[in-house]
Structure formats: C-alpha cells, structure tokens
Amino acid sequence: MCECCSSHKRPVNEIIAVTGKGGTGKTTLVSLMTRILHSKGFSVLAVDADPAVSLTYALGCSPAKTIADLRTKMIEDPEEKRRIKDIPMEEVIAGEAVMTCNGYSLLVMGKSEGPGCFCKINDLLRYGISTLSKQYDFTLVDCEAGVEQINRRVLDTITRLFMVTDTTVKGLRTASSIRGIAGEYGIQGDYTKGVILNRIRGTEIDEMVKKANGLGIEILGFMPEDPCITEHDLLDIPITDIPDDSPCMKAVRDILEKQGFFHDAHRHEDKGTHR
C-alpha cells in the first residue's frame, strides 16, 4: 500500500470504474485521475483491467507482474502452488501481482497465454479489486472496452461508474447500454453513474448535451481536444507527464472537484505534483 496511507485514520475507499467503447479515452481519464489524486495526498490503486495493458504504459511502466501471470504460475508450477497454498489469496495477489509504478500502486490483469475465456482471470481480478481496495483511498479501474466485465460482475463493488464517450451517437448509445447492464446485473448498492464526453469542441457541447438528455444520460463533465495528449501518445511519453496547465489536466481536475473528490470528507494534505 502507498506510504501516504500511514497518516490517514482510514482510507476513503472509493472504487471508480471507467468504461466505454474502445478508443474513447478511458485510459487517458484514469491516468490523469491517478496523477491528480496522488498529488493531493490520496493513496491510489490503479487497476489495468484491459488485456491491452494501455494504462500500464500510460503511467510509464511495463507489465512486470500481472494477474494472468500469477494464475499461470498457480496452475502450472507445482513448487509455486505449494509455496502459496496456505497464504490468504488477498496477500498472494498483493505480493505477486501489485506493482509500484512511479509512486503509484498498479494491479494489471494481463493477457491470457492461450485462446479461450478470461473467466478465471476476471475472477481473480474481481477478488483483487474487492479486497485490496479496502487499503486505498481510491481504486481506479481502467476497464476493457464493452460490457464483458460488467456482465461477469467483475465490478460489483464500485462506488462510481464513469462512462467515457467521444462525440458520436454510437458512443452515447454504448454508454446507455453499459448503464442498463450495470443495473440489470446487480452492481451492489448506490453508486454515481454518468458520462464524460472526451475530445469535445465548444461548438459541440449543446448538441451532445441534447442527445445525452434524450437517452436519459447524466453528463458529469467534458474533456477537450488536447494537443499535449496527442503529442505524448505519438512520442510514447507517459500521459501522467503532461503539464499541469494542459487543457485535459485542468478539465479532469475540474470534473473531480465538481464530483466532490476534494471536499472535506476526502481532503488530505497536498503532496505536490507527481513526476
């Protein structure tokens, strides 16, 4: 767990799942949320729940340890099975799959080594999220595209569901579908849910708000087109290294502020910007 937790009486224990169709900016949002919350003194567990491991690279790391690797060792390595058989699974996942990445804690799902279903890996991921999140203020989950992890109840203990979309009707409809499936498949308890519109231009806001309202979707905020994000992607520079005053960084900070992340119940001493 992050060392900054030692000064907290108790973690905030928020679990935020970030979903949407592929390529809409989920990883960008989670990366910037991770940096901002960490800079405010919160302990953060970032969860890369997409087999493409995009979040891992966006945070400036490589997937040195993954849940998929852990599962393979548990199945194929008799010595490893004997070593961990009496250790609580929560401790196994924390020790064998959680990495420290540039000051952040990072849990990576990873890729299956063969064809077939990710069911068992998702089972371990769900258990890891539900147990490890108790040690952190914020657990931020960069979900795979689509609804599979909601269908399989990987995200059944979340406190917020952020659905990221681009400025397309298809993206909004995907968000509407995710919201419906989340309700149908029983995410536990009350949780905040809404859409964050990414790569939006000022002239598009009114029209996208109208379309979202027509689908009964609440808009939580907007992320503008940002040349800093484009440049960092092109040069393979971690997204968390963009300047504090970049348009997207300021937009995400504003979204978190409006959603109450920095109110008195959540506030801790600012540690300064992570680099």
Question: Could you describe the 3D structure shown?
Answer:
The chain is of the alpha/beta class and 275 residues long. It has a single domain (3-258), classed as P-loop containing nucleotide triphosphate hydrolases (Rossmann fold, 3-Layer(aba) Sandwich). 40% of the residues lie in helices and 17% in strands. An eight-stranded mixed β-sheet has the order 3-4-2-5-1-6-7-8, with helices on both faces. β7, α9 and β8 form a beta-alpha-beta unit. The longest helix has 16 residues, at 169-184. Residues 1-8 and 267-275 have low confidence and may be disordered.
Task: Quote the average pLDDT.
Answer: 83
Q: Indicate the CATH class.
A: Alpha Beta
Q: What's the CATH superfamily, by name? A: P-loop containing nucleotide triphosphate hydrolases
DSSP strand tally: 8
The percentage of residues in β strands lies in 15-25%
Computed CA radius of gyration, to the nearest angstrom: 18 Å
| Number of domains as seen in the coordinates | 1
CATH topology: Rossmann fold
Sketch the topology as an H/E string, one letter per element: EHEHHHHEEHEHEHEHEHH
Global structural class = alpha/beta
Global outline: globular
Largest pleated sheet: 8 strands, mixed
What are the SSEs and their pairings?
Layout: E1 14-19, H1 26-39, E2 44-49, H2 54-58, H3 67-76, H4 78-84, H5 89-96, E3 98-101, E4 104-108, H6 119-132, E5 138-143, H7 148-151, E6 160-165, H8 169-184, E7 192-200, H9 205-214, E8 219-224, H10 227-235, H11 247-258
Parallel strand pairs: 1-5, 1-6, 2-4, 2-5, 6-7, 7-8
Antiparallel strand pairs: 3-4
